[in-house]
Amino acid sequence: MYNITYLIPRNGLKKKILHGIDGSFRSGQLTAIMGPSGCGKSTLLNVLAGYSISGSSGQVYLNDSLRDENQMANISCYIQQDDYVRDMLTVRESMTVASHLKLPKTVSAISKASQVEDLLDAIGLSVHGDTITKRLSGGQKKRLSIALELITNPSILFLDEPTTGLDSQSCRNLVSLMINLAHNEKRTMVCTLHQPSALLFEKFDQVYVLSLGRCIYQGSPKLIIPYFAENSVICPPYHNPADFCKPMSQVYSYTN
Which intervals of the chain form a coiled coil (predicted)? Predict the structure, then answer.
């Protein structure tokens, strides 16, 4: 992406949410968009996904070509923070309904059923196939939300704060799943993230840190502390780098 700007009307004027930011998100990698509340994380995710483009300017490229909205819709999916699952259906029934709605009629019922079982196994829900979805845990519902989108085999997945509301074990399981989808299936995985643990933070391939609508860092999470130290912003010893992103981004914005 290049020079992405996002404006919203406010009291008869235009308020700038994103300030001409650049960056790249690669296949086979899991990237977290991070920053304090109100910094533009979800706005950027919406623009990248084509979910909200009114008010945006700049260029989004797909494989070195300007993004075509129809093509993007065919190869990507957007998983929102709230899980929209059918409470009275079982996990398998939910997947079956989705397969009939999303896959072409030329795909046989047997093939659809086989794909459903393969996805349930890959996503770690095969043992819960006959469980009513309202009885699933928060982490299991998030896995089901991902599985429902994987039916169309998207190469790009956008997820809005997928770990919010999950306990630490569910967070670890979900991040491991996203890593597997990125590394082993060569998908582009981009999510917004809010204050992960230090252990989870280091599992991401890339982090994209926003502050006041500007990108102040993109790269490996393991290099973020040295990067800011070079700019005289020091993380205290034994401090979670992810927690440090919030004050760090505020200080860095006002001093640069």
Answer: none
Strands 206-211 and 214-219: antiparallel
- Between these two residues, 162 and 236, which has the higher pLDDT value? 162
Is residue 27 in a domain?
Answer: yes
Instruction: Give the integer Cα–Cα distance in Å for 53 and 57.
Output: 8
Q: CA 200 to CA 162: how far, in whole Å? A: 13
pLDDT in tens, 50-100: 987 788 999 999 988 999 989 999 999 999 988 888 889 999 999 999 999
CB atoms within 10 A of CB 6: 24
- Ramachandran angles phi, psi of 249, nearest 5°: -65, -35
Sign of the alpha-carbon dihedral angle for 134, 139, 140, 146: positive
Q: What pTM, to 2 d.p., does this model score?
A: 0.91
- The structural domain count of the chain equals 1
Record the tokens describing residue 116, joined without a space. 């459903």
Task: Please report where in the chains the tokens 């979805």 appear, as a residue.
Answer: 133
Instruction: Tell whether the model's pLDDT for residue 254 goes beyond 50.
Output: no
Residue 206: inside a domain: yes
77 assigned to some structural domain: yes
Q: Which has the closest alpha carbon to 116: 151, 160, 143?
A: 151
Tell whether 29 is covered by a domain.
yes
Domain boundaries, position 205:
2-85+136-252
What is the band of 250 on the pLDDT scale with cuts at 50, 70, 90?
A: low
Instruction: List the Cα angle 51/70/118 in 5-degree steps.
Output: 85
Residue for token pair 């992405």: 4
The enclosing domain of 81 has a CATH number of 3.40.50.300
